[in-house]
């Protein structure tokens, strides 16, 4: 049994805790994207299905924890009216495509769809970082998919 997925959980969980704590403490949703949280929950839920189908049991810990924490954050924000209809429709469509990929075509196609989506999401940020004179300014904007999903350019950064 590999301990790497359990170590990954140690890095996955803390990204949500400051945001959840701040929301609970202040109720201030500024800078936290509901669409990002919902999409993160959907993608990690799909990874959970992939890991279960692959019998990668230790990998379930980080994917389940990220699914639940991102889902809690998304529901909390959605209840405050922070999820635009267009983003909700896009995320619902993506969830349906992932379900179709896994349910009809199988585990390998689900993994392929998830890997491709990660590359599409991360590649522009990585490219911008390599072209930027100041890497900190390139990365402070967050991945382009986040800005695209919720349209206002905010990123899920806790203060």
Number of domains: 1
Distance between the termini: 37 Å
Q: What is the helix/strand order? A: HHHHHHHH
Oligomeric organization of the protein chains? single chain
Structural class: mainly alpha
What is the helical fraction, as a range of percent? Answer: over 70%
Gyration radius over CA? 16 Å
Task: Report the portion of residues in β strands.
Answer: under 5%
Average pLDDT figure: 80
- What spatial form do the alpha-carbon principal axes imply? globular
Low-pLDDT stretches: 137-159
- Helical stretch count? 8
Please provide a written account of the structure.
With 159 residues, the chain is mainly α. It has one domain. The protein contains eight helices and no strands. It has helices spanning 4-12, 17-26, 34-53, 60-79, 85-105, 107-131, 135-139, 144-150. Helix 3 (34-53) crosses helix 6 (107-131). The longest helix is centred in the C-terminal third of the chain and has 25 residues, at 107-131. The chain is globular and about 40 Å long. Keywords: Membrane, Transmembrane, Transmembrane helix. This is PQ-loop repeat-containing protein. The chain crosses the membrane at residues 56-78, 87-105.
């Amino acid at each position: 049994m590999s301990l790497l997925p359990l170590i990954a959980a140690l890095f996955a969980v803390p990204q949500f805790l400051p945001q959840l704590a701040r929301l609970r403490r202040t109720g201030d949703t500024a800078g936290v994207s509901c669409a990002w949280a919902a999409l993160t929950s959907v993608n990690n839920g799909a990874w959970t299905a992939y890991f279960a189908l692959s019998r990668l049991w230790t990998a379930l810990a980080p994917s389940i924890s990220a699914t639940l924490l991102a889902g809690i954050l998304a529901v909390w924000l959605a209840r405050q009216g922070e999820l635009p209809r267009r983003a909700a429709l896009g995320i619902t469509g993506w969830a349906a495509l992932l379900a179709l990929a896994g349910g009809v075509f199988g585990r390998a196609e689900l993994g392929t769809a998830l890997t491709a989506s990660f590359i599409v999401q991360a590649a522009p940020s990585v490219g911008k970082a390599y072209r930027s004179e100041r890497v900190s300014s390139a990365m402070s904007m967050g991945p382009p998919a986040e800005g695209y999903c919720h349209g206002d350019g905010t990123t899920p950064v806790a203060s």
